[in-house]
Design a protein that fits this description.
Oligomer: single chain
Distance between the termini: 29 Å
Number of strands: 13
Strand content: 5-15%
Largest sheet: 7 strands, mixed
Shape: globular
Number of helices: 14
Strand order of the largest sheet: 9-2-1-10-11-13-12
Structural class: alpha/beta
Order of helices and strands: HHEHEHHEHHHHHEEEHEEHHEEEHEE
Length: 464
């Protein structure tokens, strides 16, 4: 799949890359790689008119993070089985998906659920992380590196299956994991400088009044769109330095290696790749887990102000989702509780954790497919009418072509992320994108299923 940077989205609504509707340049705001989705997590089982039976197959195209995987697993009955197939836009994003799933699968006797949620969010949404998080990240990367190079035909773990990737893609994953373990000493990346460079590029002459720009995007964009739980102080801190989740006392100063990628620029006719932070600096990582919750008490207001913040809701949601992993464990756990155990014994255990020590989830599989595999799936009998749910991100919807109906089960549901949280679009352009999505889906012989559609996702079912 081609690497995406939302230029396809802008093209859908007739927005030139040099012109934006918020306080900055649109191509710089969202960047050239999507580290997190621009919509809340969804239980994909609940999106269609029929709850599928037997083993359910779900295809995620460009979802960028595992939010839908976690949410869907959490909503399963214990006897239900799920196979998630993942196609991503770049190997860097795939590597991060594997990393975040690795964290989710760490057993509770090694790391308590509270701390696991903190580490998950630290890596998920912070440009700089704590030293203990960095240590766990590097150990996870070493295990994932071994897995992708050694598990060639048999998956190292049923939820981390990379056996269908091409050899060059597995080599690229290995290279990425090794960069996380041992960053290049010759050209260390200072994340604070990287982030500030991106903010300057985005705001241009408005950089000196950046606080006003941040406030405008929060109050006139995010809050107007219904995300009032995003706290001003926390949002401004993230816009200034990339720190979204500061959940306990600690020093957040080590570059989050999983948020680095290469971006190719033209320099005097030559193509030059620069490694740095090239992701979202406007919409925020709060959207995935922090603006919706099943626990309505977290959305209470007092004098018109939310009592809890998007950070609080993110933590509560991720904690609950990770807890659901433990409850689906496919073998009996020890009598140890999910609360934090003795710190020193934890540290010893963590350093010896291998892929084999991760939790195995009853009836759950996650398989990663090659980047360019989407258009080839309809040509293979294996995938004929296989998928009960198909999800396209906003940046990948242009790849929803008519032959995609061949891989959809008769009772399938198609979910497409809309452009609500692409802040550089006006209301008219956002509506134009939704119309374009409708046109693409109809051309692919899917019809709208309005009962489950909302302003963040459009839902369709196959035309009969």
């Amino acid at each position: 799949m081609r690497s995406t940077n939302y230029i396809q989205v802008y093209g859908c609504v007739g927005l030139s890359v040099g012109h934006g509707m918020s306080a900055g340049r649109p191509s710089e705001g969202l960047g050239s790689i999507t580290w997190w989705g621009l919509s809340p997590a969804r239980n994909l089982f609940r999106m269609g008119p029929v709850r599928p039976q037997g083993e359910v197959n779900v295809l995620l195209v460009g979802s960028s993070d595992p939010r839908h995987i976690l949410k869907t697993i959490a909503g399963l009955q214990i006897e239900e089985r799920l196979h998630v197939w993942v196609i991503e836009s770049s190997m860097e994003v795939m590597a991060r998906q594997l990393l975040l799933l690795y964290f989710a699968l760490m057993p509770p006797e090694i790391i308590g659920n509270n701390e696991k949620a903190e580490i998950f969010l630290d890596v998920f949404g912070n440009s700089e992380i704590r030293s203990q998080t960095d240590e766990i990240l590097r150990h996870a990367a070493s295990q994932l590196s071994l897995m992708v190079t050694e598990a060639l035909e048999t998956p190292g773990h049923s939820c981390l299956n990379t056996t269908l990737l091409k050899f060059k893609e597995r080599d690229e994953l290995d290279r990425i994991f090794k960069l996380w373990i041992k960053p290049q000493p010759s050209s260390p990346i200072v994340m604070s400088k990287q982030w500030d460079y991106r903010v300057r590029q985005h705001l241009g002459t408005r950089y000196n009044s950046k606080m006003g720009c941040f406030d405008w995007d929060l109050t006139m964009k995010l809050h107007e769109k219904g995300s009032g739980v995003i706290n001003k102080q926390q949002y401004v801190q993230w816009r200034e330095r990339g720190l979204a989740f500061e959940m306990r006392e600690g020093v957040y100063q080590i570059t989050n290696q999983s948020l680095l990628s290469a971006r190719v620029f033209n320099r005097k006719g030559d193509k030059v790749a620069y490694r740095g932070y090239w992701g979202d600096i406007v919409s925020s990582p709060y959207l995935a887990f922090g603006i919706e919750t099943d626990d309505k008490s977290l959305l209470k207001t007092e004098n018109g102000q939310h009592i809890n913040t998007a950070q609080d809701i993110s933590f509560s949601n991720v904690q609950a989702l990770l807890q659901s992993f433990s409850s689906r464990r496919s073998y009996a756990t020890s009598s140890q509780s999910n609360t934090d155990t003795d710190e020193s014994s934890q540290q010893t255990d963590r350093k010896s954790v291998t892929i084999n020590d991760l939790m195995h989830l009853k009836g759950i599989s996650v398989t990663f497919l090659p980047l360019d595999s989407l258009q080839k799936l309809p040509e293979k009998q294996t995938y004929s009418k296989l998928f009960n749910a198909i999800y396209f991100s906003a940046s990948c919807v242009h790849q929803l072509v008519p032959k995609m109906k061949q891989i959809a089960a008769p009772d399938a549901v198609l979910i497409v992320e809309l452009a609500k949280y692409i802040l550089d679009l006006s209301k008219e352009q956002e509506a134009g994108f939704s119309k374009k999505v409708m046109s693409i889906a109809l051309e692919a012989e899917f019809e709208p299923y309005n009962e489950k559609s909302d302003d963040t996702h459009a839902v369709f079912i196959p035309q009969k």
